[in-house]
Specification:
The protein is mainly α and about 180 residues long. It has one domain. About 65% of the residues lie in helices and about 0% in strands. α1 packs antiparallel against α2 and α4 runs antiparallel to α5. It holds the Pfam family DctQ. Keywords: Cell inner membrane, Cell membrane, Membrane, Transmembrane, Transmembrane helix, Transport. One of its GO terms (biological process) is C4-dicarboxylate transport.
């Protein structure tokens, strides 16, 4: 990787809003991760103490894992932290790179829209079902999932528009690293 050129940073009011949302989602993800750590630690400690165990710790830890996974999905798309094949990024023809990145992001938008529809269906139909221990309505459990997939969809749409207007996001490669293209 070449460290001579600084990474592209997008500007504008839309990207300022995205950066604020990123900070909020990272905080939510960090809180969920901390909750998982504390709850799993509590479960482990309960095995070696004579105190009565708390059945709700396992259930809440599972919910926190779901919330962590879905709360940072959108962040991964806009920070290019998601799993991606970047072989096309090394092509010399930047128009091909732009088209491929745009198509990939449009596919993410389409899948995200389907996930939003399904998450909305879960939120609106699962209120009658309660979690076994906490008796929490399952529709409450699915609200962070809905927010996460909505964030993913919106961020992927913004990123697709950005690639169309401003060109592709390129990975930094040295010439010796690029053998294809």
């Amino acid at each position: 990787m070449s460290s001579t050129q600084p990474r592209q940073r997008r500007q504008g009011p839309l990207w300022r809003i995205v950066s604020i949302l990123t900070a909020v989602e990272i905080v939510i993800g960090a809180i969920a991760l901390l909750a998982i750590f504390v709850l799993v630690f509590m479960q482990a400690a309960q095995r070696y103490t004579s105190f009565e165990s708390f059945a709700w710790t396992g259930e809440l830890a599972k919910f926190a894992m779901i919330w962590l996974s879905f709360s940072v999905m959108g962040v991964l798309v806009t920070s290019r932290g998601h799993i991606a094949l970047e072989i096309v990024d090394s092509f010399k023809n930047k128009m091909i790179v732009r088209v491929v990145q745009t198509i990939a992001l449009v596919i993410v938008v389409a899948v995200g829209a389907g996930l939003v529809a399904e998450a909305w269906a879960l939120v609106t139909t699962q209120g009658i079902i309660k979690s076994p221990v906490l008796r929490l309505p399952m529709s409450f459990v699915y609200i962070p999932v809905l927010i996460g997939v909505a964030s993913l969809t919106i961020r992927a749409a913004i990123a697709a528009i950005d690639v169309v207007i401003n060109g592709p996001h390129l990975a930094d490669y040295e010439e010796s690293e690029v053998t294809a293209a």
